[in-house]
Amino acid sequence: MARKPGSRSDITGPRIRAAARHLFARHGFAAVSMRQIAAEVGVQAGALYLYTPDKETMLVDLLRDHMDELIAAWDAAEPSADPVERLEAFVRFHIAFNLDHAEAVFLSYMELRNLGPENFAVIEGLRRDYENRLEAILRAGQDAGHFAVPDTKLATLAIIAMLNGVNTWYREGGRLGRAAIGDIYWDMARKAVAA
Amino acid sequence: MARKPGSRSDITGPRIRAAARHLFARHGFAAVSMRQIAAEVGVQAGALYLYTPDKETMLVDLLRDHMDELIAAWDAAEPSADPVERLEAFVRFHIAFNLDHAEAVFLSYMELRNLGPENFAVIEGLRRDYENRLEAILRAGQDAGHFAVPDTKLATLAIIAMLNGVNTWYREGGRLGRAAIGDIYWDMARKAVAA
DNA sequence: GTCTATAAGACGATAGAC
DNA sequence: GTCTATCGTCTTATAGAC
């Protein structure tokens, strides 16, 4: 009875990641036990250790994969050379991507403190890579005279913080659709950095 | 040996709250044990239960006290009737208060999910009370023709999210002092809601 | 008001059967 | 690849001594 009929690691692996992401986002990394994750997947706790050496590695793998996907998606989508159009594209992309990956976004902001120093540095570096892409847009727009901000780095962080806020209140089927939200935040972001 | 010489509840109580706030903010509510809190204070774990019925009540008391203090401080400080001046005062107040109470702010955004439904509703209600004060400013400024935002509620949340971002990067002794940070964020907030 | 001691159980992780 | 069983430790919370 040891091996369950039809058991396959290429199915169980993704299901473990999905269950861990979901439970960590909902209850917090420290509050979720390996037994809970295993129960959600339908295996015993010991079986999880075929897929990860330990619990922290499960978390950092989720966070790294998320950041890699975020950066790759933006790099694949990046539009025209005009800084204003690029900023608009960034605002709409960031909101849409965050809403499509709400659990992973939540984790990548809330659970960094559960990482050891070296894992923390990896995720922090990826986040900075992403921020630098927005900062470059703002700098190009200032050089072209379209934007004027008192501090480019702080404007970068301010815009990202503002956009991240959407995930704290958005509910599917609410008053505003995603396109309308993009319009509203683009209006505010555009004016905030306007010359 | 039972009672320690000089032990007094009016000293131990605040020290327990401070230790809990500090450890919860640093490691997360679920990751901190009652034994750790007791060790930080210098008592045994059982003694904590003279001051709180359980761990969750410790957390909700910290969060409620923080929100009460935040709202009372703003209500005591609120300045002129002019909406533009009031918005500037709000921006500077919010940044300063958040930096002065960084651990409690962190908790009140990160640990709400560790509350039961009734405790959660209490803290959510206080947060909405505070948000409503900013929303009223934005509405008054629109009525007077000074501001123009596509959606007043979302502008409220966007500004608060932007300002909250300061706590994620600010370090004492960094490149910018608090006054300079207030200037920079006031410039961006003002333009974001400008007519 | 604080201690020691303990109840009753959950935790992360591993060993060995199949 | 997954199971059962288990190790050693930690957990929240309580009881009773002083």
Automatic annotation (TrEMBL), chains A, B:
Keywords: DNA-binding. It holds the Pfam family TetR_N. PROSITE patterns: HTH_TETR_2. Residues 10-70 form the HTH tetR-type domain. InterPro entries: Homeodomain-like_sf, HTH-type_TetR-like_transc_reg, HTH_TetR, KstR2_TetR_C, Tet_transcr_reg_TetR-rel_C_sf. Residues 33-52 bind DNA. It comes from the Bacteria. Transmembrane segments: none annotated. This is TetR/AcrR family transcriptional regulator.
